[in-house]
Amino acid sequence: MGAGAVVNAGTAGAQGWSASCSWEWPVSGSLSQGYHAGHDGVDFAVNVGTALHAPTSGTISVAGPNDPGGYGTYIQLEADSGEQIQMGHLSETWVGVGQHVEVGDQIGATGNTGSSTGPHLHLRIH
């Protein structure tokens, strides 16, 4: 699936599952590294400047080159459904702190900033 492919997610409640949000892949690219000890997310191999899309709706809590943890320029999205999503190693951010975004909105561009061995998107959801 590429960027724009929507996945409906849900939450478990007393009456079973119900759809509560939509998610999509944030970029069109190949998964280049999965989650494992020492790597707290997944990486997508993409060229510098590839459009980054909001994977779900939510509010931006961090946007810019201010990460002390190695992500370089990054965006942190507080999802309306409760998750916290971090997208790192970006070349540009096109959103500001406090801005609400919808699933699929273009929010930045991928890059090779921070502790990076090559152009990619680092995606972490928790």
UniProtKB/TrEMBL annotation:
Pfam families, sorted: Peptidase_M23 (PF01551)
Residue stretches making up the M23ase beta-sheet core domain: 38-126
Molecular-function GO terms, alphabetical: metalloendopeptidase activity
Protein name listed in UniProt: Peptidase M23
InterPro entries: Cell_wall_metabolism_enzyme, Dup_hybrid_motif, M23ase_b-sheet_dom
